[in-house]
Design goal:
Chain B: It catalyses: methylarsonous acid + S-adenosyl-L-methionine = dimethylarsinate + S-adenosyl-L-homocysteine + 2 H(+); L-lysyl-[histone] + S-adenosyl-L-methionine = N(6)-methyl-L-lysyl-[histone] + S-adenosyl-L-homocysteine + H(+). The complex is a heterodimer of chains A (122) and B (224). Chain A contains four helices and four strands, in the order E-H-H-H-E-E-E-H. Chain A is of the alpha+beta class. Chain A has one domain: N-terminal domain of TfIIb (Single Sheet). In chain B, helix 2 runs parallel beside helix 4. The chains are: A alpha+beta (122), B alpha/beta (224). The structure holds S-adenosylmethionine. S-adenosylmethionine binds next to helix 2, helix 4 and strand 2 of chain B.
């Protein structure tokens, strides 16, 4: 169940209005460890805390860093890599392509088997 | 006056997409516009949910997710998936064109994203390939996969339906387009057995198709 790692060829920092209330509500829905590791592999850790702190909703600096990594960092070109299978999913023009084979649209067993093979990605 | 009201949530501009794009990507049609009307009708109730994560499966040109993003007054993450990479790139263009922020992922339904997003989707929208076709047409690459639904027009829809109850957040809602041939009552019963209540919120006849939008949400007692 390990998280995919990211390799990046092109990255963009976009400016998004900081909304502390939104970030506070988002944090419980994200896996902090995964966010931190993604930030590490993209080299954008900055002052992002490796652990989720208690009372984060009152800590503006903490929320600002979460906002930066969560909302402002955009991978334009690179790969998501499944740590177990080594399978690479390309990111082009900011859009990750998670299809196992180009053009694949499944509707039955063949597809679900293919997906199970890649369970490690999850 | 009426004019002003309907201009509150205008149809997203998709004039940047050409005939050429629509060779590969589903061109907004009656079903797309019915979904926009349904969402507009739901604007107040959607905003009262203060959704954080909204997802459209099968985003095509991107007009629906762009419209949803513009309709919501509080900040949220809007994610659009489509198995056609030309659709996801059109979606990003449509979002940009209308100054909306939408994240797109090319994927077969929610694919590998599913485990991460389970129980977290506040608003889920799907205008599926719903046309009754021979089963093998569903796998056809290219434009046929935007409408070919196979047996009962349900082959793609059913794969998502079996996961919807797991995908939605406690207060999450799901909007689905169906036509009569999809046996909407059977779909509603199927999801009812998994704890989701439903209502038909809008119906329209478009040529030979009888389209409707069904809204699903957890039974109140199930939300605790
Ligand atoms: C009827 S079109 C709707 C397009 C757009 N949402 C609209 O309302 O105009 C259905 C869309 O679902 C996409 N689709 C079909 N099968 C899919 C699958 N297995 N996973 C993801 N998207 C799929 C098609 O590529 C197409 O863009």
């Amino acid at each position: 169940m390990a998280d995919p790692t990211v390799t990046v060829n092109e990255m963009k920092i976009r400016e998004v209005d900081f909304n502390p209330e939104f970030i506070s509500r988002m944090i419980p829905r994200i896996e902090w460890k995964a966010l931190y590791e993604a930030a590490l592999s993209l080299d954008v850790v900055g002052n992002l805390s490796p652990e989720l702190i208690t009372d984060y909703e009152k800590d503006e600096d903490f929320l600002k860093e979460a906002h930066r990594v969560l909302m402002e960092v955009e991978v334009i070109k690179g790969f998501l890599i499944c740590p177990e299978s080594g399978r690479k999913f390309p990111i082009e023009n900011g859009i990750p392509n998670m299809l196992l084979n180009e053009g694949e649209v499944g509707d039955g067993p063949a597809q679900s088997e293919a997906l199970q093979e890649d369970d490690s990605m999850q | 006056m009426n004019q002003e009201v309907s201009q509150l949530f205008p149809t997203p501009d998709f004039s940047h997409l050409s005939e050429n794009d629509f060779q590969d990507v589903y061109e907004p049609a009656e079903d797309s516009f019915l979904l926009l009307d349904a969402l507009e009708q739901e604007a107040e109730s959607l905003n009262s949910l203060r959704p954080l994560i909204c997802v459209e499966v099968g985003c095509g040109s991107g007009i629906v997710i762009t419209f949803l993003k513009k309709l919501l007054s509080s900040q949220c993450v809007c994610l659009a998936v489509d198995s056609n990479h030309k659709a996801t790139s059109s979606t990003v263009k449509t979002a940009d064109q209308n100054k909306a922020q939408v994240e797109a992922v090319t994927s077969d339904l929610l694919g590998n994203l599913q485990p991460r997003i389970e129980g977290k989707i506040d608003v889920l929208v799907f205008n599926p390939p719903y046309v009754v076709t021979p089963p093998e047409e569903v796998r056809c690459p290219g434009l046929p996969s935007s409408w070919a639904g196979g047996v009962n027009g349900r082959q793609v829809t059913d794969r998502l339906l079996s996961d919807v109850h797991r995908l939605l957040s406690p207060s999450g809602v799901f909007y689905l387009i169906t036509i009569r041939e999809n046996k909407p009552d059977e779909i509603r019963q199927m999801l009812k057995d998994r704890g989701l209540e439903s209502t038909v919120i809008i119906e329209r006849k478009a040529g030979p198709e009888r389209l409707n939008v069904i809204k699903f949400q957890r039974r109140i007692s199930a939300v605790t």
